[in-house]
Amino acid sequence: MGNEPSEPVEQRSGDPITAVMEIHRQLRATVQTEMSSADVQSMKIYGIPQSIKKDSDDEDPGLRGSMNRPRFRNAVSLTGYVSDLCVIPDDMFVVCGGSNIRFIKTTDGSIIKTVSVGGENMCFGVTADKLNSCSYVTCEDKHVYKVTKDKTTKFVYLGFHPVNLTRLSSGNLLVCGGGEGLFSVEEGKVRKLELGVKFGYICSVAVNVDGDICVTDPGLNKVFVFDEDLGHLGTYSGDLDFLPHGVTCDIGQRNKISTDFIIADRGGHSLLIINRGGVCRKTYSTESDCARQPWAVDMSPSGQLYVGFDVDEVTGNTHILMYDVPI
Questions:
Q1: Is residue 127 part of a domain?
Q2: d(CA 244, CA 233)
Q3: Which residues fall within 8 angstroms of residue 88, CB to CB, at 6 or more apart?
Q4: Does residue 9 sit within a domain?
Q5: Measured between alpha carbons, how far is residue 185 from residues 90, 285, 304 in Å?
Q6: Is the dihedral of CA 303, 107, 96, 127 positive or negative?
Q7: What is the pLDDT of residue 289?
Q8: For residues 55 and 59, what is the distance between their CA atoms, to the nearest angstrom?
Q9: More confidently predicted of 72 and 245
Q10: CB 51 within 8 A of CB 292
Q11: Planar angle of CA 219, 223, 225, nearest 5 degrees
């Protein structure tokens, strides 16, 4: 574990890249029906194991970042698969599911708006431009779509199958291209970033306040961190069960800015805090909340962490858990 040199890394035996790609192919078969407002319920904790309970107000939540026991407050249950999520303001978040994205109210789980993106094509990733009140969505037709209040338009043609993306403060986009690598989109121009590392299948990206870039690679069971000049800072490799997917930035605590990243480990059923050097500082098992295989993560401006999980084998639903006290 920890830091590794920036030489090309080899794929682990028993963890073929094709297996990770198959996960994404299965998404197309999993999501076949539209979700209605009746499919999304909150506060009632519908479809979530009864052992998941809201924590009481008098329970000690622990210190922020301690990973001792983040305080679980609320949940939303969706039918079908959710490939990504993004928090907009504190009271609303967006989810990708099938060929649609849905804007969901945090307080009661009601659907504010449903937007069709890319026709019958599968949506994979979503990121928000909070200043301009729009969202960007990656789609299997090799486009990034721009979704505003009034319309949905094709923003840029990528020429490869995108997975996830994030928006930089400059307005540029970083797009994960799976086995193709990491790409920058600036003023409609697509450019592959030369990072000096051989990837397996990268599926999620986040950028911290210092401009450091973190990408997850479930194809190689690794997490890579680069600085804003694309220099390699570190690589984290977990155990054989480590299967990183979503990544978001820790926003810090008590007016102290954090440069750490929070990783959803689908294979280890856990959340990891990894610093800019690629060192895992803390780990929290989501199984203590009876929730397995975390897939997508995002943090609200106030520090509430949203975690999307894989489809529940019992209920057939996807659960999104919200933690009132950030980890």
A1: no
A2: 18
A3: 94, 103, 128, 130, 135
A4: no
A5: 27, 35, 29
A6: negative
A7: 63
A8: 7
A9: 245
A10: no
A11: 135
Q: How confident is the model over 15-40, as pLDDT tens digits?
A: 444 555 555 555 444 433 333 333 33
pTM of the predicted model as reported, rounded to 2 decimal places = 0.79
pLDDT the model gives residue 69: 53
Nearest to 320 by CA among 64, 35, 61, 119: 35
177 in any annotated domain: no
The string of pLDDT tens digits covering residues 138-167 is: 999 999 999 988 899 999 999 999 999 999
Domain that holds residue 256: 17-122+191-202+218-323
Domain count, the chain: 1
Kindly state whether residue 173 falls inside one of the protein's structural domains.
no
pLDDT the model gives residue 255: 54
Residues 6+ apart with CB under 8 A from 307: 264, 271, 286, 291, 294, 296, 297, 320, 321, 322, 323
Tokens of 183: 């790409």
Give me the phi and psi of 181, to 5 degrees please.
Answer: 115, -160
Q: Which of 38, 185, 70, 73 is nearest to 125 (CA)?
A: 185
The residue with tokens 């750490």 is 260
